[in-house]
Amino acid sequence: MATTMEKTKPKTVDEYLKLPYSRVLVPEGNAAYSAEILEFPGCVSDGETAQEAFDNLEEAAKSWILAALEAGQTIPEPTGAGEYSGKVALRLLRGQHQKAIQMAERQGVSLNTFIVEAVAARIGAEELYGVIANRLDVHMRDLEARTTAFRVAFLESAIEWLTQATSDSKPVYSNPTWQLSKKAATIAGV
C-alpha cells in the first residue's frame, strides 16, 4: 500500500507541513510551553503561551525541513502515514532469545508479553528523556538570563560605587565587593 508521501511527494516546505506530523505541546510548569515534531529529531521550540510555542514550532520546522533538503536528506514520513497491524516479525541472536525467554519465565509472562512490555518501557523512557531534556533546556535559558541580569546589575553597581567613591573624600562602604554583590543580587531578583 502506498503511503501519503509516495502518492504525492511534497515539493515545498509548506506542503510538508500540511502532512499529519506528530506535534507535541508540553506545559513546563513555569507558565511556559515547549513543543516538538516527533518525526523531526531536534525540532523543538518553546513559548510563553501554547500558541506562541506552536507558532515557534512551525518556524523551527520550516528551518528543519529546509536544512534537511539542502543537505540532501530524506524528510521522514508522518508517523500516522502507514497502516499498523500490531504484528512484527522479529529476529534475535540466539543468546538474546534465550535470555528473553528466561526473563519472561521469571516474570511469569509469555515471551510476546515480555517483548511488548520491553518495547513499551523503552518508548516511555525515550519520551521521558525528551520531556526532561526540554525542561532542562528551559531552566538553563532561565539561569543564563538571571546570570546575565546579575552581571549587568553588578557592573552598574560597581560603576555607581566607583563614581561615588572618586567624587567623595570619605570611604563609601567598609566592604565594597560584598555590598555590590548584595545590591546586584537585589536588582537582578536573585
Q: Can you walk me through this structure?
A:
This protein is mainly alpha-helical and 190 residues long. The chain has a domain at 8-81: Double Stranded RNA Binding Domain. The chain has six helices and three strands, in the order H-H-E-E-E-H-H-H-H. The longest helix has 57 residues, at 111-167.
Summary, kept brief:
The protein is mainly α and 190 residues long. It contains 6 helices and 3 strands; from the N terminus they run H-H-E-E-E-H-H-H-H.
List the helices and strands and how they pair.
Layout: H1 4-7, H2 13-17, E1 23-27, E2 33-37, E3 44-47, H3 50-70, H4 94-107, H5 111-167, H6 176-188
Antiparallel strand pairs: 1-2, 2-3
Question: Which labels suit this protein?
Answer:
Double Stranded RNA Binding Domain, three-stranded antiparallel sheet, elongated, 190 residues, single chain, 7% strand, 6 helices, mainly alpha, 3 strands
Low-confidence stretches: none
The description of the largest β-sheet is:
3 strands, antiparallel
The outline comes out as elongated
* CA-based gyration radius: 27 Å
| Helix/strand/pairing category | mainly alpha
Overall mean pLDDT score?
80
Instruction: Classify the oligomer.
Output: single chain
Order of helices and strands: HHEEEHHHH
CATH fold-level assignment of the domain at 8-81: Double Stranded RNA Binding Domain
CATH class of the domain at 8-81, anyone?
Answer: Alpha Beta
User: What share of residues is helical?
Assistant: 55-70%
Question: In what order do the strands lie side by side in the largest sheet?
Answer: 1-2-3
Strand tally is 3
